[in-house]
Amino acid sequence: MTSTWYCALLRGIGPGNPNMRNDKLRGVFDGLGFTGVGSVLSSGNIVFATEATDTTALEDRIQAALRGELGIGGGTIVRSRSELAALVGTEPFGELQHARETYLTATFLKKPLEPVPEPFPEPEELAVRMVGYDPDARAVLAVSDNTSSSSPDFMAWLERRFGKDITTRTWLTVHRILKRMPDHT
């Protein structure tokens, strides 16, 4: 059986907490028997390979180990390399570039958004434009104008609208994660 590459997107990771540092996080994944374990940035992005294919079971197993070994209860969302590659391949942001003033974001949902609302909801009074929803990656895509102070409000809006089983990454981070995952096993 061949291994598949995955990324665990961990919610609520603060690298200032000693139990949330990359070396400790990687140790938990190594202890679970995953191979190729690596971290991307210090915000809870762990890449790994495994023969397991049930992502819900992987999420539950990883979260139980993080809670049991490090006391981390934030949440775990797993995406395969192929899911992330397909998302990036759709070029949902077109010619827009991620920059200090304009963040391109992907908010990953633990469960599929069913049904997908039409029209897609827009946060009122926030400097954010919703790009849409990618059902295969289970990701809500948005462009935030960071010249205003609405970013924290946008994160709160996302939780109110889609629940707490979500985690947001910048588009730049999604690309960095994908680069750390080989396209072969």
Automatic annotation (TrEMBL):
Organism whose genome encodes this protein: Prauserella alba
Name assigned to this protein: DUF1697 domain-containing protein
Cited InterPro entries: DUF1697
